[in-house]
């Protein structure tokens, strides 16, 4: 039972990290695009 909870906790941490990094990436992406393509 404890191992099961531990695995679920790890999965939640991984999902949170993935969501955070992807949201960070998508907020930085337009800035990089504007920097690379000055109009």
UniProtKB/TrEMBL annotation:
GO terms for cellular component: photosystem II reaction center
Membrane-crossing residue ranges in chain numbering: 7-26
Top-level division of the source organism's lineage: Eukaryota
One Gene Ontology term from the biological process aspect of the record: photosynthesis
Keyword annotations from UniProtKB, A to Z: Chloroplast, Membrane, Plastid, Transmembrane, Transmembrane helix
InterPro entries: PSII_PsbK (IPR003687)
PANTHER family the record matches: PHOTOSYSTEM II REACTION CENTER PROTEIN K, PTHR35325
Protein's UniProt name: Photosystem II protein K
Source organism of the structure: Populus davidiana
């Amino acid at each position: 039972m404890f191992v099961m909870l531990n695995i679920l906790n790890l999965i939640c941490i991984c999902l949170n990290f993935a969501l955070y990094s992807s949201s960070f990436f998508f907020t930085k992406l337009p800035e990089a695009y504007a920097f690379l393509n000055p109009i």
